[in-house]
Write a structure and sequence with these properties.
CATH architecture: Alpha-Beta Barrel
Strand content: 5-15%
Largest sheet: 6 strands, parallel
Shape: globular
CATH superfamily: Glycoside hydrolase/deacetylase
Number of strands: 8
Structural class: alpha/beta
Number of domains: 1
Radius of gyration: 17 Å
CATH class: Alpha Beta
Order of helices and strands: EEHEHHEHHEEHEHEH
Length: 258
Amino acid sequence: MVSAMSKPISRRNLLVTASGSALSGCLGSPHAPSAAAPGHPAAGARTPAPGRDKPLPPGLPDQIEHGPGDRDEVALTFHGQGDPGLATALLTAAEKAGARLTVLAVGTWLDAHPGMAERVLKGGHELGNHTQNHLDIGALEETAATAEIERCARRLEELTGSRGRWFRPSQTRLATPLVVRLARQAGYPHVLSYDVDSLDWTDPGPAAVRARLAGQARPGSVVSLHLGHPGTVAALPGILDDLHRRGLRAVTTSELLT
């Protein structure tokens, strides 16, 4: 159902904090959710993310790259940092289309914009841990790596009452055995990887991001995307349209796996 690998694949930390000016016509306040679309939660009402409270099936590997290939579902997962206005615009676009996302938040982003944690959950999305400072966690020694995981976990718990179900290592697709062990000790039995990299963090433009997903996403795929990039916000409606035409739904990671 899922596959696991062990060799980490690192890349530079090229997450860009994008200016919201390119999308000024569609951005709302990062601390106040937009008015709900028909069929979606109103402001102030928390909607549990689908599958969040269901137990995971037994036999999942330490590192999860994709879900079952016999389901007409994919998980769109977002590395969470950058302009909160862009994040709000993206979440709102997903909700209007009936999509549910998984956001792996960076702790410093939550420190700077604490209202975004509640904003994610109010939209029915899922929130997880992407380390405190988005360092190359695979290159850190044990004490420092533990701190990166634990500090973000504690911040999530302070803001939401939960550490979240998912941990994704920073600056790498796959975690080292050490990071897998430390994540498990912090309450994350499985590291969330992905099988489709949108490369949206390179800012190739909305058309390129959309085309890459159209060519690579399959039933059960876990897709890596990023908040904080105007091109990703612009690409999302088309991505969701493409998935819909193929009979695929964008769901939370927990929903995909439970």
